[in-house]
DNA sequence: CCAAAGGGACTTGTATACAGTCCGTCCGGG
DNA sequence: CCCGGACGGACTGTATACAAGTCCCTTTGG
């Protein structure tokens, strides 16, 4: 979209993802407008987009809040995501070509490098991950699936999951991508789907374990 | 949403669904504003919503058009819908209660009456259908799934499919709903999912057959 | 005759003013 | 002390004016 509207969208979005705007917090259009240095009109546009992505929610009287996800919501989202990404993997397997495989390998190599650092480079890990999944989606060649998954993946909770990973999880994640490539080489859609399903589910449990550690933290922490 | 915005949304939407606004046609905000008797602001809101539903599309310079679906797009949408509705049926089976089953029966009874008329009452058929699927979604209890399916179902092509059905198809559709209830009574999620999958796929073929009849019509028609 | 440049009509983007609605607070009565 | 209603601030919805960008047609030069 146009400049002011884009700026508003990007600014609000990054503030939500970073947690600077906390879940449950009310978002007044005028305040956001001032924050982004634009008028209310593009802010309203931005909020519409963020609402579609479920990053913000409205109450019955049209006031807007940063979406507050219960653990159930998170489970719901991961569940659906596992199913849809599994489906994408299966579709991609059917349309796989040597050259796409090469691109997938390259993306996964990024991930490999990121986890070999003394302290894993989480940003690089995420970027490699993103590329891998993007190539896969592109190959699956379903506009709707792509649109749906993009909104599911770009959630704060999903996004931050990798930060909860320990080294072993990062390595396993990399290994699963490698295995996916193997499934693609054999054009085995069922295998690819199964790996992907397991891949996402593990990510969910990494999240929920970390969540439990953090919320049922030592009393007085 | 608020009054003017809602009116704009409803008006434009119904004109697209009815075909009065044809696929590919450009939608100028000002013209729509006049058509709906409101200013451009609520029209822009409405277009955003319709864009999220994929009823309208934008080109790279932000001009808006009535979405034009290729047969591939339709296949893609039905495919995804089969998968998601199947999933919903499975989830619903796990949470089924006698009272929900009673409601499903009631909705299906409407469908039964509709097809027993000398000439099937398509509107009543659609309404019963809608209720059945809505109850099912509500029981599946996944906010995201509900949101996604609602956008998938409310498409012109999906919506008009029933008008292409012959009497036999209507009867079979009703029968599948009855079978779904049986699966729910046994809380057999796998069975429910399988029926639902087949249910949606058959709807797709009914559509694509009709499409073929209409587009590869007798030369000179 | 074709191609590229220019200009004018049209469409969308943004700012702003005003109207309508909601929410909390404060005051008075029971 | 508690409850209810009215007032005031704050927020969102809508209309409108103006700015910026796009499209298309015409015109001009090769």
Short description:
2 copies of one chain form a homodimer. By secondary structure, the first copy, chain A, is mainly α.
Unreliable stretches of chain A: none
Q: End-to-end distance of chain A, in Å?
A: 45 Å
Number of helical segments of chain A? Answer: 10
Question: How many β strands of chain A by DSSP?
Answer: 3
Query: What gyration radius of chain A follows from the Cα positions, in whole Å?
Result: 19 Å
Mean pLDDT of chain A: 90
* Shape descriptor of chain A: globular
Widest beta sheet: strand line-up of chain A: 1-3-2
Topology:
Two copies of one chain form a homodimer.
Chain A: H1 3-17, E1 26-27, H2 29-36, H3 40-52, E2 56-58, E3 64-66, H4 71-94, H5 98-116, H6 122-140, H7 143-153, H8 156-164, H9 167-185, H10 189-215
Chain A binds a DNA duplex (30 and 30 nucleotides) through helix 1 and helix 3.
Question: In words, what does this structure look like?
Answer:
The structure is a homodimer of 221-residue chains. With 221 residues, the first copy, chain A, is mostly helical. Chain A has two domains: 64 residues, Orthogonal Bundle (Arc Repressor Mutant, subunit A); 145 residues, GntR ligand-binding domain-like (Four Helix Bundle (Hemerythrin (Met), subunit A)). Chain A is 74% helix and 4% strand. Chain A is built from ten helices and three strands. Chain A has a three-stranded antiparallel β-sheet. In chain A, helix 1 crosses helix 3, helix 8 crosses helix 10 and helix 9 runs antiparallel to helix 10. The longest helix of chain A is centred in the last third of the chain and has 27 residues. Chain A is globular. The first copy, chain A, starts with a helix and ends in a 6-residue tail after the last helix. Chains A and B meet through helix 3, helix 4 and helix 7 of A and helix 3, helix 4 and helix 7 of B. The first copy, chain A, binds a DNA duplex (30 and 30 nucleotides) through helix 1 and helix 3.
């Amino acid at each position: 979209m146009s400049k002011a509207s884009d700026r508003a969208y990007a600014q609000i979005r990054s503030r939500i993802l970073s947690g600077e705007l906390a879940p449950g917090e009310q978002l007044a259009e005028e305040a956001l407008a001032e924050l982004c240095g634009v008028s209310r009109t593009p802010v309203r546009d931005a909020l519409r987009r963020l609402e579609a992505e479920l990053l913000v929610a409205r109450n019955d009287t049209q006031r807007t809040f940063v979406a507050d996800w219960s653990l159930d919501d998170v489970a719901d989202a991961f569940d659906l995501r596992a199913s849809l990404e599994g489906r994408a993997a299966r579709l991609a397997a059917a349309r796989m070509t040597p050259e796409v495989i090469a691109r997938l390998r390259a993306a996964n190599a990024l991930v490999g490098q990121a986890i070999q650092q003394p302290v894993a480079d989480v940003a690089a890990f995420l970027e490699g991950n993103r590329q891998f999944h993007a190539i896969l989606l592109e190959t699956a060649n379903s506009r709707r699936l792509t649109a749906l998954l993009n909104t599911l993946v770009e959630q704060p909770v999903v996004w931050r999951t990798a930060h909860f990973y320990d080294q072993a999880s990062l390595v396993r994640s990399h290994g699963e991508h490698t295995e996916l490539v193997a499934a693609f080489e054999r054009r085995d859609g069922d295998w690819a789907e199964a790996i992907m399903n397991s891949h996402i589910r593990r990510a969910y449990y990494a999240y929920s374990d970390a969540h439990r550690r953090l919320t049922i933290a030592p009393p007085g922490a």
